[in-house]
Input
Amino acid sequence: MVTPAAVSEDLPAKYEVVIGLEVHVQLLTASKIFCSCSTQFGNPPNTNVCPVCLGMPGALPVLNRKAVEFATLAAMALECRINEVSIFARKNYFYPDLPKGYQISQYDKPLAEFGAIEIDLKGSKKKIGITRLHLEEDAGKSLHEGFADSAAKTAVDLNRTGVPLAEIVSEPDMRSPEEAYEYLTRLKEIILYTGVSDCNMEEGSLRCDANISVRPRGQKEFGTKTEVKNVNSFRFVKQALQYEIERHIGIIEAGDRITQETRLYNANEGRTYGMRSKEQAHDYRYFPEPDLLPLVVDAKWQSKIRLMLPELPEARRQRMIKEYGISAGDAHTLTLTRSLADEFESAARAAKNPKRVANLVQSELLGRLKEQNLELEQSPISMAGVTASADLVESGVISGKMLKDLYDLCFERKQDFLPVYEAEGRPEQSHDTSALEKLADELMAANPKQVEQYRAGKKTMIGFFVGQVMKASKGQANPQLVNEVLARKLEG
Output
């Protein structure tokens, strides 16, 4: 077999990659999908359990209405068709963390179908189809310990058993790991806007299974696929897909055949390992769940759920560009999360110049938050503070340099802008022309060589003098006035 490292760089041009993703999103309900047990993450093992989720004889499931509403809302946001009648089914398989020996899911009659997400990769837009969105319960979790020595053991935590999931299955429309990454980014963004999940990958609220195959370019039939299971970061999904592409091509080039199987990605080693042969649908012996009636989400209920649908990210970006005159780049950054967009719009509506607010959020606020590894919610400067600072700059009360210094103090003292501005004595730019002329004369006398260079035609030398004046005035001189005074003085 040819290893991925041995594959020639020009070989991928001969092949086409086909990728489809299955994403499990934990719905943000307080209780499980078929019982009243808590969905709280981090509780002691096997404490969020009851006879229903433990699969005890005679225990019957009762469907969580909120889980249905959340899944339907997500499906609407993903442009899916909602099926008025859907059927729960038993997916039968044995696994230590599946106490019932089956998982309640949906099979041939899911809650929703035929959706789409538009991705934008380097200015090229493409629609990725969504085959289906269906409801199902989660399984438990196996914890493997001590396998490096003789004390190896596996423990089972059933707290997750019965946690409500929406499984979102894409069409095999993606043709590169980059497209898959972009699709996942847009999907997570939309789900977060709806509020139906926190999409916390570290806590397992969003997990991705990636299906990949490779075929000669121009061939219509799909190649043999492999599935990379339960990858817990978008970056790792991208890396795992890249590894699998190279592995598939290496095997094909060596004249061997791909084995259809489920694989796991080891992020530390940057490679995948075989886990088990890939199951077909018939291996699960699906049949309708006898303890649950068909799920009916009629037109009236759908109308009520649709009222909960927020303005989604792409539509919001286009509106904000028109309404506030901001750039597409600014709009994209300011709508990455619903909370950031809400706070920006609240500030922009109160500001003298919304574009300046957008610039300050991008250039001053988000940069500092990233440097200190802080989320927006942890910012010492509120959006009201950003608005106040933007208005002060807009009206010429403070300069950009003064604003930067004040923002630094806000982060240093962990205080909002206005309290810091007040504590610093409400500093203002100097508009004293006579004082600036005197300072300009002193600096020109101290730097005759630079004066001669300017007068000999090197007009960019004015920047040197502007910097010196701003430094001498501790950033409090009005930059426009400084430029006017210096230009007049240097011209002689």
Summary: The two ends are 80 Å apart (CA to CA).
